[in-house]
């Protein structure tokens, strides 16, 4: 029993220490960060990093763009997913099995990066917001989860009763199914939203215009490629360098906190969603 | 075949005419659903199936002016170019080793974590561990990689503090090609173990309580109970997760390898996906990039089908 606690406390420490280190660094002074003096508690408390981050127009633009892609993308994805999952959850729909195979096959085999790029290009989506909203709009995994949920939580009798009352399929969807499917909608909206918020590969492939860039692209430029404006004055350069170091920590916190704030509230739904997918998928 | 179940009667009838009339009945009754389905199905055609057809450019000498269908057929020449390229062996083995390592290292950790959480009687503590270990799953790859770089950076990073504590100099982990795989795999475990553990916890929660009762009556201790009841209980879930992992062996995430790459570790960090990106979008050699992508998809498919067949034979459960 002691072994179990030691193991779990170790897991807690391993996960928490890097997170606390980043948080503490983001709240320290530029000099303390550059000297490597920060461990798990802020040294010379300062909000300079956040100030610099929030006064950078590329970061603000990226943040707003990501917000747009996340909200609009999730709305489109959820709508399309329900549009395919609801019909597939009706037991007597002719062709259900064939359509399911048609959809699931795309999990096993894919055309590849370039053939997909050519489609996006042919549709005129290159360098438009649509390039980030449409090509990834439907996830097969989410469709599987949605079908499993609709089938297990909405009894056949309900369909039959509604049908006897003369309700059409669309009416049943809007008046009976969707109100019952709120947890499902929350789960897949969250899954799609997170994927949008965190994605950068599509933007790397399809976007050139920096005004359309999502936050992750801006982050990559600053955090990994180390791009920052040049300065010749030695003292100013040293200060810039220190600020650039500090900025990285603050940026990580800014980009991560929105999701971590949402997460405890939706975690229970989210877990349920994965479970439906894992057990029935 | 009771009169109350007309559909059962219909089902028992001749299959040929049944199929057609069932189709007609379903179309009449559910026409709204078919209209609704048309939109997402069109999406699948456009964004999934058209690219599969487009993949024929792997067998062509693609040029922009003539388009996909106007370009000349060159047979397997693009594949030959890939196989003859000196990087071929290296990127295929990099991809393979990295993925197998990731599957093998990532597989047991969440199981152990889930078993441990399941043993804890303090609900609050178990919840906390779950909530905290789950959180990194929400962090983006860009952030994970930059955190890795910051934590591992020599002199000012977290790791250098640890080494400094023991009075040792920290090696330059990020510049060492041999360290790349370990960094890649263990940051991956760090990020996903808590998330995967949730799936196993669900499987554990679904185990029939009478089995535990029986184990208790037989005088089993905790460890014996885990071996005799818990592990067999989660085995089917574990098999499916393992199959999915192996099936994805070759489609290793582009994002993380690409972001962790630097000129110093390229000899081990260049994988098929990153190479395809460079060939296709930076060198604009669409045909070669498509050939590499197709080669990759084909291996993936073969691996998935093979592993599924083996798993079915050995454990009786598989994906299909």
- How many helices of chain A in DSSP terms? 14
Radius of gyration of chain A: 24 Å
> What is the 3D form of chain A?
globular
Please report the distance between the alpha carbons of the first and last residues of chain B: 31 Å
Q: How would a crystallographer describe the biggest sheet of chain B?
A: 2 strands, antiparallel
Largest sheet of chain A: none
Largest interface: A-B, 85 and 94 residues
| E-strand count of chain B | 2
How large is the share of residues in beta strands of chain B? under 5%
Question: How is this structure best described in words?
Answer:
The complex is a heterodimer of chains A (281) and B (320). Helix content of chain A is 75%, strand content 0%. Chain A is mainly α. In chain A, helix 1 (2-26) packs antiparallel against helix 14 and helix 8 packs antiparallel against helix 11. Chain A starts with a helix and ends with a helix. The mean pLDDT of chain A is 85. By secondary structure, chain B is mainly α. Chain B is built from 17 helices and two strands. In chain B, strands 1-2 form a two-stranded antiparallel sheet. At the A-B interface, helix 1, helix 4, helix 5, helix 6 and helix 11 of A face helix 2, helix 3, helix 7, helix 8 and helix 9 of B.
């Amino acid at each position: 029993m002691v072994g179990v606690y030691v193991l779990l406390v170790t897991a807690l420490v391993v996960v928490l220490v890097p997170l606390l280190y980043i948080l503490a660094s983001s709240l320290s002074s530029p000099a303390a960060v550059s000297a490597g003096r920060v461990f798990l508690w802020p040294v010379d408390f300062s909000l300079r990093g956040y100030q610099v981050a929030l006064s950078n127009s590329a970061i603000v633009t990226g943040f707003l763009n990501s917000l747009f892609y996340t909200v609009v993308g999730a709305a489109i994805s959820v709508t399309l997913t329900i549009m395919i999952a609801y019909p597939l959850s009706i037991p007597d729909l002719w062709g259900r099995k064939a359509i399911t195979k048609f959809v699931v096959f795309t999990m096993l085999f894919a055309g590849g990066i370039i053939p997909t790029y050519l489609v996006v290009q042919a549709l005129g989506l290159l360098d438009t917001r649509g390039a980030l909203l449409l090509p990834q709009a439907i996830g097969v995994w989410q469709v599987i989860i949605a079908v499993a949920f609709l089938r297990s939580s909405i009894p056949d009798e309900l369909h039959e009763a509604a049908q006897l009352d003369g309700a059409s399929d669309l009416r049943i969807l809007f008046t009976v199914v969707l109100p019952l499917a709120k947890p499902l909608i929350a789960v897949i909206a969250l899954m799609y939203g997170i994927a949008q918020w965190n994605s950068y590969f599509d933007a790397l492939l399809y976007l050139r215009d920096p005004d359309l860039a999502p936050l992750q692209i801006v982050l990559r430029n600053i955090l990994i490629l180390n791009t920052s404006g040049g300065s010749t004055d030695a003292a100013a350069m040293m200060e810039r360098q220190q600020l650039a170091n500090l900025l990285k920590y603050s940026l990580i916190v800014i980009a991560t906190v929105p999701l971590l704030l949402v997460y405890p509230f939706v975690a229970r739904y989210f877990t349920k969603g994965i479970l439906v997918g894992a057990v029935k998928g | 075949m009771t009169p109350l179940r007309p559909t059962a009667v219909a089902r028992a009838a001749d299959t040929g005419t049944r199929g057609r009339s069932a189709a007609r009945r379903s179309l009449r009754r559910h026409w709204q659903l078919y209209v609704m389905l048309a939109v997402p199905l069109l999406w699948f055609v456009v964004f999934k199936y058209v690219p599969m057809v487009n993949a024929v450019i792997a067998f062509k000498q693609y040029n922009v002016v003539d388009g996909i269908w106007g370009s000349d057929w060159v047979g397997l020449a693009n594949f030959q170019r890939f196989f003859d390229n000196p990087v071929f062996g290296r990127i295929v083995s990099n991809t393979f080793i990295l993925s197998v390592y990731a599957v093998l290292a990532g597989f047991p950790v969440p199981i152990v974590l889930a078993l441990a959480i399941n043993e804890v009687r303090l609900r609050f503590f178990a919840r906390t561990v779950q909530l905290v270990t789950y959180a990194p799953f929400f962090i983006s790859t860009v952030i994970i990689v930059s955190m890795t770089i910051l934590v591992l950076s020599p002199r000012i990073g977290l790791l250098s503090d640890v080494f400094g504590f023991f009075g040792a100099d920290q090696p330059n982990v990020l510049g060492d090609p041999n360290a790349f795989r370990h960094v890649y795999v263990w940051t991956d475990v760090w990020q996903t173990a808590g998330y995967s553990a949730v799936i196993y916890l669900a499987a554990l929660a679904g185990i029939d309580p009478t089995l535990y009762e029986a184990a208790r009556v037989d005088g089993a201790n905790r460890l014996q109970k885990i071996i005799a009841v818990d592990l067999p209980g989660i085995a089917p879930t574990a098999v499916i997760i393992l199959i999915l992992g192996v099936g994805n062996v070759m489609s290793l995430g582009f994002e993380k390898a690409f972001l962790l790459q630097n000129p110093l570790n390229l000899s081990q960090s260049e994988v098929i996906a990153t190479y395809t990106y460079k060939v296709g979008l930076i060198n604009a050699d669409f045909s070669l990039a498509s050939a590499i992508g197709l080669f990759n998809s084909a291996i993936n498919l073969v691996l998935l089908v093979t592993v599924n067949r083996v798993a079915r034979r050995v454990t009786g459960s598989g994906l299909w």
